[in-house]
């Protein structure tokens, strides 16, 4: 994330912070190797304070592409995947550089490394683009990780909001998604209570807690 006390939220697209980015990436790889985590979120960062987004967009994209290529080459040595995540600039972070799946896909194409993927957080995607079914289908080949939260409150999937998560989970299954789904939300209660939605979902699918089939038991 860079220097959070100084207002940074990632370094990869921030001009002039390349050395700090490489140092942070090496530290992230060290930790990921220790815990056996094969994926690292390469955070783009914020548009610098006092600058116009449009005026610095070209320089930030160039910096981002160069840093992503460096990251991909380093991560490939560890058999790891780098992830880029669009974060909405309408509610969550007005200054974040990478905001939409379309922007992320265009950058990934320019970078041209197979071990760089899209970290698609459906909370951000819904706020920026909507049209989740079509976007999941269109960007599915690029997706390396999925994150979820209800919109607009960013709470549990069964809290009041815009998204129908049972439908979304079945769509992911039909597309052949076999990765993790990260719960990137703020629980309204404690963690255990906040996972009640998952038990209900398993039961609706005829599964035991833990996702195993009752028939298999």
From TrEMBL:
It is an enzyme of class 5 (isomerase). The active site is at residues 85, 184. Its EC number is 5.3.1.22. Transmembrane segments: none annotated. The keyword Isomerase applies. GO terms for biological process: glyoxylate metabolic process. The keyword Aminoacyl-tRNA synthetase does not apply. Keywords: Isomerase. One of its GO terms (molecular function) is hydroxypyruvate isomerase activity. Pfam families: AP_endonuc_2 (PF01261). Residues 10-200 form the Xylose isomerase-like TIM barrel domain. It catalyses: 3-hydroxypyruvate = 2-hydroxy-3-oxopropanoate. InterPro entries: HyI-like, Sugar_Epim/Isomerase, Xyl_isomerase-like_sf, Xyl_isomerase-like_TIM-brl. Belongs to the hyi family. Catalyzes the reversible isomerization between hydroxypyruvate and 2-hydroxy-3-oxopropanoate (also termed tartronate semialdehyde). This is Putative hydroxypyruvate isomerase. It comes from Sylvia borin.
